[in-house]
UniProtKB/TrEMBL annotation:
Family assignment from sequence similarity: Belongs to the peptidase M1 family.
Top enzyme category: hydrolase
The EC number(s) this enzyme carries: 3.4.11.2
Protein name: Aminopeptidase N
InterPro entries recorded: Aminopeptidase_N-like_N, Aminopeptidase_N-like_N_sf, PepN_Ig-like_sf, Peptidase_M1, Peptidase_M1_dom, Peptidase_M1_pepN, Peptidase_M1_pepN_C, Peptidase_M1_pepN_C_sf
Length: 889
């Protein structure tokens, strides 16, 4: 397939004003009658009408009620003899499709006897012939007809205007969406479902009905999703003045879903993973994810649905902005400054372990890409998480109030339109004409056009005679595919200076009359800039890029001493955590590159003591301690190296963990005792932080016990596993047993399966834990093959496929990167096998070897061969073809 290029964008030759869809739902053969009103677009030269379609059986085409000639161009339906002039005309298309056989989970499909749709990005064309592009916005009226006993609930977007019985045990429901929308926001659901309902009154006094639909047995697990939805509605009104614009807002859960969730207008469809939660079945992380995904999809109602994308190159217009909004929502709900910092650290960790590698690999693309072959491949961490960082930098440059003004202007200008990233940035800048953003807008927008992660190199020198400190900040960005030269970015750097003892210093730049606040934002625009701070009695310790104020790599030569000062004292919690990560990272890298065998004394004593100090510090929250005590991931460590030996990285990191387990044994025991739950379960940040730290302590104590041949802590872990009153504690205990290779692991796994055999989301955890277990002499791959033979395994269910195959290939580097290449052969077999079922999921898996060029041999050669083996298949989907072609380029 040919690449689609952003610069080739042209407006559509026709507009579709209204769509009337009638569905006769039947798993084997669903009939779709599509009656549209169209107009020629007077701004575009006269062209034939070319409608997108895929996997459809076409039965009839009528123009103004009359038969007409048409032809097929590939999978497109082409109509040339349409009425001339610009008057509206009627086009009627009748097709059938087979939802039961739709394993792609795009378009109309059946999951456990219920009909669902997924249309973003280009799934609507699998339902009917249409102008399947986001800038064609129409009014929808939808009539659903189906057997009443099998499909008692019939849902679509908007408001239910009519329903009733038909003959032969059938019934119907008619829905009208009061808002115009692009077809990717169309949805229908039909099946046996029940709903939790909640009536709410908005600030403006309007009444709304919120509903969360699930399968009958799952109603008890919907309270948290409903609470999250109510919180989302209230937050968007309070923070941005954006109200709910629908009488009825519905969420429906399905267990077969490619993504996390989908923001269809008024009818969000969710992966069950992001809806269902009870304390017995869901972990604290699940609860937090539900809150943020419910928020995310709800916030799309304005950022995405009211104002949508002109074309798919603008995807980050809605996704980057909406991720920023859901991150802020979670932070605002978390409340305390410390809980906000924890959320920020977690978000940055995702960015650095997933997006930075993407930005440095074969799939690197700008936040606003220039071309794609398959748009499904561009729902990436770059579009989402880096896109959110770009919005966050705007927020930093104009301030919280200024950003809210910018959002207001954006909606005043563009409500009801399909627009571009440029138009968003322009609105934020225009609402803040005096801001750095307005002054620097064209340069700032390089964040949208240039791929790659910029590096900022910081060097400082202290002049005792002048009592000044000179800080030079230089930026660069490595070439990425198709972009050899990069121009300087606009980089906001939040910074401060500390004394060697850790006190914050007031900041005074040369030329300033007086010393000011101890923290400020410096905006880098040049390749290199120098700042001179005055009035300093001694060399300061710089604290740069506080709160991770820009998505860059900061290169700075700290001494261990300086990092220890920052770890113990930085008023910025993010940089405190970062100092600990830098200390661990430099130790790991030295050990990886040194020749010595990985042993238990890698971390210097001062670092171990400092980490003990954090663990014992009564002023710090448990959640923050858990983050500081967690070593950088193997993926993150690998990213810092030019040549990667995954086994060496794994061995060194495991040795460091063992060192912390042994050296801090008494402290872990103390932390375990200190952080036991008292009272009932609540997923709030304070209690979940305590569970996360006590879980880590238990894990460390089991590692120490394994080393010392002691059975006390594994015994306690097994006991905790058995009596735990919530999934977080239970699963942490199970993880500690499995990861430390305890004799209790096998009976605990068996018991866990027996307890939760009817809870698919828990069984996913059971599979994932085993596929992600530490490798012992190559035992994980045979175990994974065994798991695929388990009666509960299915390749067709994306959650289940991810829980086994992705957990092994993408999240277990020590077990996956085998010297005998068997992990890679397994990977290529699964990519090929999955591609025949579900190309979107297969293409995700295909990306597990993105960074193969960094690998040392024998892995490098073996990885290339495995990718080439996939690439030689003649029948690959566009999805997988694009990924492997780019990987080999
Ligand atoms: N469902 C995906 C999301 O919400 C795509 N829009 O991000
Ligand atoms: Zn989204």
């Amino acid at each position: 397939a040919a690449a689609i290029r952003r610069e080739d964008y042209t407006a559509p030759a026709y507009w579709i004003d209204s769509v009337e869809l009638t569905f006769d739902l039947d798993p084997a053969k669903t009939r779709v009658l599509n009656r549209m009103t169209l107009r020629r677009n007077p701004d575009v030269a006269e062209l034939p009408l070319k409608l997108d379609g895929e996997d459809l059986n076409l039965a009839r085409v009528l123009v103004n009620g009359q038969g007409t000639s048409f032809k097929m161009e590939g999978t497109r339906l082409v109509l040339e003899n349409l009425p001339t002039g610009t008057d509206a005309f009627a086009l009627e298309i009748f097709t059938t499709c087979c939802p039961a056989k739709n394993t792609h989970l795009m378009g109309l499909y059946v999951s456990q006897g219920t009909f669902f749709t997924q249309c973003e990005a280009e799934g609507f064309r699998r339902i009917t012939y249409f102008l399947d592009r986001p800038d064609v916005m129409a009014s929808y009226t939808v009539t659903l007809r189906a057997n009443k006993a099998q499909y008692p609930v019939l849902l679509s977007n908007g408001n239910l205007v009519e329903s009733g019985d038909l003959d032969e045990g059938r019934h119907f429901a008619k829905w009208v969406d009061p808002h115009k929308k692009p077809c990717y926001l169309f949805a229908l659901v039909a099946g046996k479902l029940v709903a939790r309902e909640q009536k709410i009154r908005a600030r403006a006094g309007t009444d709304h009905l919120l509903q969360v639909y699930v399968r009958p047995g799952d109603l008890g697990k919907t309270e948290h999703a409903m609470n999250s939805l109510m919180a989302s509605v209230a937050w968007d009104e309070a923070r941005f003045g954006l109200p709910l614009d629908l009488e009825r807002f519905m969420i429906v859960a399905t267990s077969d879903f490619n993504m996390g969730a989908m923001e269809n207008k008024g009818l969000n469809i969710f992966n069950t993973k992001y809806v269902l939660a009870s304390e017995a079945t869901a972990t604290d992380v699940d609860f937090a994810n539900i809150e943020s995904v419910v928020g995310h999809e709800y916030f799309h109602n304005w950022t995405g649905n009211r104002v949508t994308c002109r074309d798919w190159f603008q995807l980050s217009l809605k996704e980057g902005l909406t991720v920023f909004r859901d991150q802020e929502f979670s932070q605002d709900l978390a409340g305390s400054p410390s809980a906000r910092a924890v959320k920020r650290i977690e978000d940055v960790r995702v960015l650095r372990t997933a997006q930075f590698p993407e930005d440095a690999g074969p799939m690197a693309h700008p936040v606003r890409p220039d071309s794609y072959i398959e748009i499904n491949n561009f729902y990436t961490v770059t579009i989402y998480e880096k896109g959110a960082e770009v919005v966050r930098m705007m927020h930093t440059l104009v301030g919280r109030e200024g950003f809210a003004k910018g959002m207001k202007l954006y909606f005043e200008r563009h409500d009801g339109q399909a627009v571009t990233c440029d138009e968003f940035a322009q609105a934020i800048a225009d609402a803040n004409p005096e801001s750095d953003l307005a002054r620097l807008l064209p340069q700032f927008k390089r964040w949208y056009s240039q791929a790659g992660t910029p590096r900022v190199k910081a060097t400082g020198s202290y002049d005792a005679a002048a009592r000044s400190y000179t800080l030079t900040l230089s930026q660069s960005c490595a070439p990425t595919p198709g972009q050899s030269e990069k121009l300087p970015f606009v980089i906001p750097v939040n910074l401060g200076l500390l004394t060697h003892e850790g006190a914050a210093l007031p900041l005074q730049l040369q030329g300033e009359a007086a010393a000011g606040a101890p923290s400020r934002t410096v905006v880098l625009t040049e390749a290199s800039q120098t700042l001179v701070f005055t009035g300093l009695d001694a060399a300061p310790v710089p604290s740069l890029l506080r709160d991770f104020s820009a998505p860059v790599v900061l290169d700075i030569d700290y001494s261990d001493e300086q990092l220890l000062t920052l770890l113990a004292n930085d008023p910025d919690a993010f940089n405190r955590w970062e100092a600990g990560q830098r200390l661990a990272l430099r130790t790991a890298i030295a050990a990886i590159q040194g020749g010595a065998p990985a042993s238990s004394d890698i971390l210097p004593a001062a670092v171990v003591d400092a980490l003990r100090g954090v663990l014992r510090n009564p002023a710090l929250d448990a959640a923050f301690k858990e983050l500081v005590l967690t070593l950088p991931s193997e993926t993150y460590i690998a990213e810092q190296l030019d040549v990667v030996d995954p086994q060496r990285i794994h061995a060194v990191r495991e040795a460091m963990r063992e060192q912390l387990a042994l050296a801090l044994k008494a402290d872990w025991e103390w932390a375990w005792e200190q952080n036991q739950d008292t009272g009932g379960y609540s997923p709030d940040p304070v209690s979940s932080g305590r569970r996360s730290l006590s879980g880590m302590a238990l894990h460390m104590l089991c590692i120490a016990a394994q080393r010392m041949g002691d059975e006390v802590w594994p015994g306690k872990a097994y006991q905790r596993f058995k009596v735990a009153s919530n999934m977080t504690d239970r699963f942490n205990a199970l993880t500690a047993l499995v990861a430390s290779g305890s004799v209790h692991a096998a009976p605990a796994l068996a018991r866990f399966h027996a307890l939760f055999k009817d809870e698919p989301l828990v069984i996913d955890k059971w599979f994932a834990l085993q596929a992600g277990a530490p490798d012992k002499g190559g035992n994980v791959l045979p175990a994974v093959r065994q798991l695929m033979q388990h009666p509960d395994f299915s390749l067709k269910n994306p959650n289940r496929a991810r829980s086994v195959i992705f957990s092994y290939c993408s999240a277990n580097p020590g077990a996956f990167h085998r010297t005998d290449a068997a992990g890679y052969v397994f990977w290529s077999d699964r990519v090929i096998e999955l591609d025949a079922i579900n190309p979107q999921v297969a293409a995700r898996l295909a990306r597990a070897l993105d960074r193969w060029k960094k690998l040392a041999d024998p892995w490098r050669t073996a990885a290339r061969e495995a990718i080439a083996r996939v690439a030689t298949r003649p029948d690959l989907s566009n999805d997988v073809r694009e990924v492997v072609t780019r990987a080999l380029a």
